[in-house]
Every structure is written in C-alpha cells, then in structure tokens.
Amino acid sequence: MSTRVPAPYVGLIDDAAIFPPGNSPLPSALTAYAERAERPEADLVASFVVTDVRVPEVDRDLPLSVVVTGGAGAVAGALRLADRSPARLAGLEIALRDPDDLVGNARRVLAATDAARAEGLLDEETPVYVELPAVEPSASWLAAADVVAEAELRLKFRTGGEEPHLFPTASTLATWIDAALDRETPFKCTAGLHHAVRQTSPEGFEQQGFLNVLLATRHAFDGAGRDDVVATLERRDAEALAEECRAADLAGARRWFTSFGSCSVSEPLDDLITLGLVPTGAERP
Prior knowledge:
Layout: E1 13-15, H1 26-36, E2 45-51, E3 63-68, H2 75-83, E4 88-95, H3 102-119, E5 128-131, H4 139-150, E6 154-158, H5 170-182, E7 187-190, E8 199-200, E9 206-207, H6 210-221, H7 226-234, H8 238-247, H9 250-254, E10 257-262, H10 266-274
Parallel strand pairs: 1-2, 1-10, 2-3, 3-4, 4-5, 5-6, 6-7, 7-10
Antiparallel strand pairs: 8-9
C-alpha cells in the first residue's frame, strides 16, 4: 500500500489508547490497531504503547513501546517480558522518579540500559526515552538531561494529563525544546496533544497543539529566539498555521520531535484532514 499520509506526519503518533483519558480496554485497542493497519491512515501511527506489566497480555505482532512502571531496577524485567512477547520492541520509556536526585536517577537508568544491552535484552538501535519531571527546568533537571544526551538516550516530555497543572505553559515547553536541541537529543511528547492547534479544552485546560510543537521545533532549530518559539507555541490561527506547515521543512523538525503518545488517533487525524494537510483518502471508514 502506498503512503497516503505526507512524509512529515508519518509515524507521528504512538497509539496510547489504553492510557487516560481514553482508557480503552487492551483487547479493543489491539484490535483497533490491527484493523487500522489495513487503511491509509496507518502511516500516521508508529508504535502501540503499553506498560511493562501488561506486556504479557499483548498477543499480536506489532511494534511495541514499553513504559517501565518501576524505577531503573525494573528495566531488565520489562525487557524480558517484551522478549517473550510476539510483539516487536520499538522503544522503551522510563520516568525519573527521584526529584531530589535527578542526576543519580538518570545515571541508574543509564546503567540499567547498558546492562540490558550487554545481556542482549536491548538492541543498540532501540530508542530509550527518559521522561524528566514536567517542571520549569532547574540546574539538576538540566544536568539530568546532560546525562541522557551523553548516553545517546532520548528525552520524553509530558504535555498534559487529567488535571490543569499537568499542562505546561508555552514558556516551559519552549525551554524543554531548547534543552533537547541544545544537546542534539531527539524527544517525544506524551499526553495532551490530541489536536493540531493550541486550544482551550471544554474543561479549561490549555492544550498544546502538535503542529505548534512541530513548527516551534523547526524555528528553534533554525536559531529563532525564545520569544519566537513561545509565540509559535501559543498560536491559535489554524489556517495560517497549516499554511506555514505546508511551506516549512517539517521533516527536518521530525528528526528531533519524533512522535507523541495519544489515547486518540482519530482526533489528530480529523484535524489534519480538516486543515488539508492529510488527504481525505486517508480518512477512516
């Protein structure tokens, strides 16, 4: 099947249907992922995201991103579960859980992934995403990012949740993007990016738009100042934003902003179709 989704959007979404607020039952989510594979919009979606404890419930051959629910000590166990699964490991994701020792925590994760590679549980090319706390970066936050970058791991940023305080401001998100680019480190986002363009949700959440993040990453990489990056993240003019996306080198931005986890694939897809960035032929039946 030829690709119907334009290159800048291929593999942009990781299917996190089983996570809040979607909370889809795992069997239903797996079925939906498999059925989508036969349709043109399959190209929009990369991996299926699941927690390590639920890996044994995955009974299909699909690319799997595994979220480690424990600390660094749980990495090997998560990888052993993935190794026994019919699914293919597409990525490993782990959050730093010790805010008082982020650097030490990052080093423990690095040691665990190094040991897993030495044991043959983790291939060199499998990306490992380290989630830093969703706060305005402090010196220790930046130092932990240094550890991640020096080890050639990747960063993960939480851009939403079920409470208003879990949605970062444009200023904070701009700082995260700058931190990743300064270290030449790819990153992914998770939660809150259901829509293409920044908006206020019915619940009053200030939701980032994934097109805003793509363009902001492009601008930051091109050397734009902080004010420009923040302004790009805050834009709500959907048609103008879409027009800029058509002209921008978003494929270059995707080198750094690799994907985002979303409990919905239909909402981002519908937005891209409405804005004319993905052809209607990719619309789901």
